[in-house]
Amino acid sequence: MYMMNLLTNPRTKSANIVGQTMRLNPHGDAAIYDTMVRLSKGYGALLHPFVDSKGNFGKVYSRDMAYAASRYTEAKLAPVCQELFRDLDQNAVDFIDNYDNTMKEPALLPATYPNILVSANQGIAVGMASQLCGFNLAEVCDAAAAYLKDPNCDLSAIILGPDFSTGGDFIYDAAALNDVYNTGRGTLKIRGKYRYNKNENIIEIYEIPYTTTSEAIIDKVEDLVKAGKLREINDMRDETDLSGLKLAIDIKRGADPDKLMGKLFKLTPLQDSIGCNFNVLINGMPEVLGVRSLLGKWCEWRTECVRRRTVYSLEKKKKKLHLLLGLQYILTDIDKAIQIIRKTEADSDVIPNLMNGFAIDEIQAEYIAEIKLRNINREYILKRTKETDFLKKEIADLAGLAGSEQRIQSVIIAELAEVRKKYGKPRKTSIIHEHEIESYHKEETAPDYPVNVFLTKEGYFKKITPQSLRMASVQKLKEGDSIFQSFETKNNAEAIFFTDKQQAYKCRLSVFDDTKASIMGDFLPAKLGMDQGESVIGMVLPGDYKDWMLFVFENGKAAKIDMSAYKTVSNPLFSIST
Q1: Which residues contact 395 (CB under 8 A, 6 or more apart)?
Q2: What is the tens place of the pLDDT at every residue in 464-484?
Q3: Is 0.90 topped by the overall pTM?
Q4: Which domains does the chain have, with CATH numbers?
Q5: Which one from 2, 61, 72, 545 is the annotated catalytic residue?
Q6: Which stretches of the chain drop beneath a pLDDT of 70?
Q7: Using an 8 Å Cβ cutoff, are 365 and 354 in contact?
């Protein structure tokens, strides 16, 4: 894109960019476009996207929102890319052959800030993987400048924590953060943000963790609602629009929104962990480095880039000064120079004759010979030679800069301050401490009260309170169906449902809503998520699990099983055993 002048030119079709990129990289067009999408402003994966995109590029927070084909979208380089290419034409980095040796490409881009710490990235290769989280650009620039002044500076006081393009909250853990800063490995916790709309009794989730998608959250909530673990929710919708992400949760009257969100943070990807593995290539070799070590490596590399850039400028100005010094000789006798050129018969003898006539070298003579006839006048030559004094001062200053590491570091610090001022943004990810969080540790115990339960031959189940049962005159059943099991028990009692597929489904009766005799009840295969064609053949209330079960099979065999075999320590709402 830089070679296509897309840093300054208008956007072009993404398909054109993909095609040109294939000259540098032998990957297919799909892999190249996928990478370009992730770097785009529209997709939103990076805090500071490199691609200024137009069209549908999908969204990082959506699993199902597909991006448009490359022939429909347009792109150019974002302004921040100026910091990646600024010194590219000044010999700041090495150039290598591309894959088929037809052109040159930079081994690294001479970025003026530690982009590796700003742009979140992950990758996998043969026998190794890498996972880098992003940090705030302003904080990273401040940290790099502080490191140049004092390598033992307190990074945690400058880089407050990771910063993600999707926002959310970072749950501050000093020990885990120090592990990442010092070793490059660790696990950090992030969670989404929400607000409660009291008028509509709706919870609106407007930021989610970087590691998940809105569809994954909705799918998990739906599963929990079906399992009866989230009774406070009536409905959940994705109301994302042009203004941004929004997941709306309709909650039941009387439900506490903060307690409900505590459950959601515990049971869904709304709170997630991101594993850090800062495995990077240093001189072609993989190393796992902490943030401090990465800053050290970047500062060493950037110092060398600035030195190479300075030496390049120094040599360029020395050559220019050399040419202007040759021009000064012409100033002593312009007529003599014209006479030499006029009297020289062969074109190949012009340069040697000028060299002999003014005691100058071949390069100076070549420069003088190429001057246009209209410029061979005293005013032009005086104007050019006046630059020599200024050039000498510049050369002396550049020579001093190239030989002083301290001065080079001052230049880097000034450039970091400029980048911070131009591109720095407030943090998107807020920081909260663990003591500020109301954790949801265990499921609230459902109220316990007497109930009557009924199971029909067709697999319908009813849970009715004694008061409601006394008021009923008749039980409503499906045509041809009949009740074949009934028990008097408590709402929190456990029940085991056995099926014709040799499976047992265990749950608490509290997962079923209280109903009336005039309603058919819950269809168990659907309620318990049974396999297709599976039917309930019996129900047992295990109580204290001290009894035993006797099974008799069609082939005449029998099995006696202790009820303790069905007891589970974790006591889930639903469990299945075979």
Answers
A1: 314, 317, 318, 321
A2: 999 888 888 788 888 889 999
A3: no
A4: 12-85 (3.90.199.10), 193-269 (3.30.1360.40), 304-423 (1.10.268.10), 450-577 (2.120.10.90)
A5: 72
A6: 438-445, 569-578
A7: yes
